[in-house]
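In this section we turn from sequence analysis to structure. A common task in structural bioinformatics is to predict how a protein folds when a small molecule is present, because the ligand can shape the pocket around it. The inputs are simple: the amino acid sequence and a SMILES string for the ligand, here zinc ion. Study the lines below before reading on.
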Amino acid sequence: MKDPKQIEKTIDLAYSLIEQKDNIQLEIVFQQLCSDFNDIIDNRSDSNIIDLQFRCMACIIRCQLYADVNDEFVDDEMQMIRAATNCMVNPVLTELQLNQIYRLVNDIVRECNKYYERRGIRLPMPDVLKNFGKFQTKYEPIKINKREQTSHSCLLCGKLPATAKGSHLAPNFLIQSFLSYDGSTKRDREVVVETVLGSLAKDRKWGRNVKPEDIDKVFGVVPDKEKSNIKASAVTRDDLLCPQCEKRFSFIESKYSDYYNKRKNTVSPEVSYLFWLGVFWRLHIAGWCIRLSDDDAYSIRKILDECMPNTQKDVDTLKANRTWGKFCYTLRHCSDTKSELLGLVGNHANRSPYKLLCGEYEITLYADHESAKDGYPINDYKSDEQCAEIKFIDFWKFKVDVLGEVEDKEFSSLNKNPLGKLLDLCKGDNGGENFKLAPYGAQELNNNNMASHVGSYAYVIPGSINKFMNYKASHPFDSQEKFWEGVQKTYGYTKEELQEMVGYWEEHPHFLQLKSEGSIKRHKQRKERGRSIMKINKARHLKAKSKKQARKNK
Ligand SMILES: [Zn+2]
């Protein structure tokens, strides 16, 4: 039998080729993977190999979904579901392993379902998958950041050993107020949900200064054992930077925080420019909601390393010049976010623009001025920072766009390498999920059927709309007037806002993106081929018919 480690490597390689869109290499690796899979397919006694079988199958199906050439993956999908059914009675698998397998199969079925929906097909959900939803709310540790385990040099200067502990990836003053359970800005009071959006894996975490009873207030009753566990901090990381570079970041931060917290009226454009580049870059190196392109990551690292001063005093005399790069950003703030769940969430796109939701703020970073066309004031190192105050509905649309982008393009959850996973953070919340993925065979939601709120829906539903639907379902006999009054009182959304939200979400480009130019072209080609085959068959049929007729006439 082939070495399982080798097969794992092949799987990782296939996923990274999908990410890079390297179709030629992928075809070769795909063939390799199929033959590897045949090698291990018969094993029923080794739980690790069984687990590997499923990951292999998943990868084979995803390669085919990605290639989008034909329907052959359907057989593989059915095989995978059958295999999952067999696993249920296999005693070598633990409950945890079984859950992992089910979750993977569920993901695959969901991904295949998107393919079917594009072609207007709906298939009934297999029995074995019907209860999958319950696994999605489970909290469990997410493996991240192996980099911490081996010693290496500072990721900024590249010279000194990276020994700085407890580095805040986004500065404390920026995130603590919306992640802390009591709204305070003091350290270690955060109560958060850490999540890999692509796979829905999640864990709940809290800072050192959160009392056990306050944890329960947020999440309902949390088992004592989990509360006493020491979990890795959700907002800091160790061993990414050297202590000196850590200090250099703090000089810039303390200057910017004076301005941010309104202790000072102004801040120099040099400081705000370095500050935001520093935020995006540190999120990137830690695998936290932002993924910069290699070029941009390199340029920003260079700018930060060369321009950030070594003392607090030198921050006041910073003077930018052309070597500071072409980056620019737009900044927006919404003071009325209503009942939206706040967090630190990025668009995970590995090229500019990079979008970041940070509590009540939205920041978009552009690689150059030419691409900055969102209509808001553009900030760079030359002029004083401007922050646009926006309405709730615009804040909400940005959030939906970011989540939609993640849902469309997120492949990091497929990556077995913990460094490849991107984490997002939300404030801890017991009011259900901020969005939910509907199961296989789900019904498409529209204005007509949303009132009934029965069963399940086919798309990610923004939390606000989900709340609205719940309200509608639990107040079926309210008059129109009373209903809107109730919604506004409970959630703060006006009728106009909700109508706009539902409309924007339904006509969201995200749904149109399911059809790419390539897939439409391939679909046409298939149809064309089908037509010409039909023509040939028809001609054969006619020929046979006339022969038959001729025989009869004889
Ligand atoms: Zn350093």
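The longest helix spans residues 517-553. As an exercise, try to locate the residues that line the zinc ion site and compare them with your own expectations.
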